[in-house]
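The material for today's practical consists of a large collection of protein records. There is nothing in a record beyond a sequence line and a structure line. Backbone structure tokens are a discrete shorthand for how the chain folds in space. Nothing more is needed to start thinking about how sequence determines fold. As an example, a complete record with its sequence and its structure tokens follows.
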Amino acid sequence: MKFFKKIFSFGTLMFMIGIMFVGIFNISLEATNTIEFCTSCHSMQNNLAELKQNVHYNNASGVTVGCPDCHVPRDLIPKLQLKLIAVKDIYHEIIGTIDTKEKFEARRWQLANQVWDRMIATDSRECRECHSFEHMDLQEQDDSAQTMHKRAIKKGKTCIECHKGIAHEEPDEPD
């Protein structure tokens, strides 16, 4: 009987530790999905200033989009994968690779292309959380937008292929 009591006590303890781990893990994920966290690195302050001048952040409807809305997947597994990839950005901030505006700008083309490649690979998944061809009223768009969206639908293009520079200044391609 003592054996079963020990097993039950151990199982209960492990269950409680598991619940605490899940809770702390969830709090950590939420805390790292805020504009405040994203811009806590000096190198991201310029990106925030650009975003604040953009229609995705500053608009008549009052709907505000933050860093995680465009850069972090909503589903758990892709979110965790991206969080692991983002560790390298923190590393580069710490060692000084991108810790000043000048250093960041020097690498901006490369960094932007990494984001664009990821967005193309995921069919602009984060954009499509709010925008989708299926829900667009093409008749309400101006002629140019109608034509381009119809062409994009036909060719299977994804948002970022045409809308680079939509939230941040598009970097100049290096020589």
